Amino acid sequence: MDNSLRVFVSYSHRDQLLVEKIVNILKEGGITVLWSSTLSAAGQFSEEIKRFIEHAHVFMPILTEEGSKRGWVHQEIGYALGLHIPIFPVTTEEVIKETMLGQLHTIRLSKDEATLRNQLHINEFKTIRNRIKLPALYQKATRVQQRALMMKEYADNISSVSDLSHIDKYGTVRQKGGLSTFHIPDKIIGHQVWTDRYLPGARDSYHKEVQKGERMALQNHASKKGCKLIITPYYANLDRSDLAANTRLKTLIDFLENMPNDKVVIAMQNAKTSIESLTMVGDWFLAESVSYQDGDGFTHTFFTRNAAEIGMRIENFEAELNDLLGDLGWTESNSRVNAIEYLKGLLK
Cα separation of 96 and 252, whole Å? Predict the structure, then answer.
């Protein structure tokens, strides 16, 4: 995984001293803590808090008599339940049975320091994350422009969460299918490359703008954390003019040539396969396109932040990437150079 385990801590600000002690133990144990001490809307169920909860691997409400009186604590728990995020409730006192809080299996925290650290050990949270595998929830994009906009939004939201919590804001970009996002130009919209890549057809300025937005958002992550790509070169020539195919290949080649060698691992499928597209940025989000329309790109793309689903898909991706590298006789360290030479050989 690219990022440490992320735990959102929900609490009443009247329990601040207790919470700070718990947060410090979690941080010392290697857990990334998302909590509202850094947010501008403390004591409210704000959009910032929603964003934190959406990106958590585990949701941990600290249930006290005081916390049970706070409406936003209940709202946060309901929001986490609705998103199918595993919940690990803890308390230092008796839980009130009549409330929604009382219906959750709650761990009573020990006053003994050593026992408390064991209760809050990272392995406990990993067990919960891995054991409670609720169905992933997805958001759907039904047009290529909407897909690009959502890809940028999901990628940019990682940085927003990270800015608020002061954690690493980047993730490795993993992509499978086609020529990857990095065959989209990073030039200004008026540049000739945008005309050439669509000839003899054409696209309007809005289409080009949202496509470029996706490219720059993912490149922002790839430039910091690197990228791992499984590409399908025949896609470049699929019902396209020689100029359009060459333009797309050259754009991808330019990207690879300008990336440091240690930031790229790339393999390719030489045989024609069904067109598919998978994008993952760290373990922050996954986007999978399942419907392709000639000349218009992917028309149905599903996005999720479900940690269990993304973790499984990363393992599968890594296994497939290693198998393809083995079939090609490439290694991770020489794949970028070999891919550049291979792609140059496809230019017409």
Answer: 59
Say what angle helices 47-54 and 71-82 make with each other, to 10 degrees: 40
For 117-132, the pLDDT digits (tens) are 999 999 999 888 877 6
Q: Which residue shows structure tokens 């080649």?
A: 253
Beta bridge partners of 264: 227
Burial class (CB in 10 A: 0-12, 13-18, 19+), 143: middle
The pTM assigned to this predicted structure is 0.85
Taking phi over 0 as left and psi of -120 to 50 as alpha, with beta for the rest, 309 belongs to: alpha
The size of the chain, in residues, is 348
Relative to beta strand 297-304, strand 139-141 is antiparallel
How many CA atoms lie within 13 Å of 292's alpha carbon, on the beta-carbon side? 13
- Compute the 3-state secondary structure of the chain and give helix, strand, coil in percent, each to the nearest 5: 50, 15, 35
Residues 280/176, Cβ–Cβ less than 8 Å: no
Q: Which one-letter amino acid corresponds to residue 67? A: G
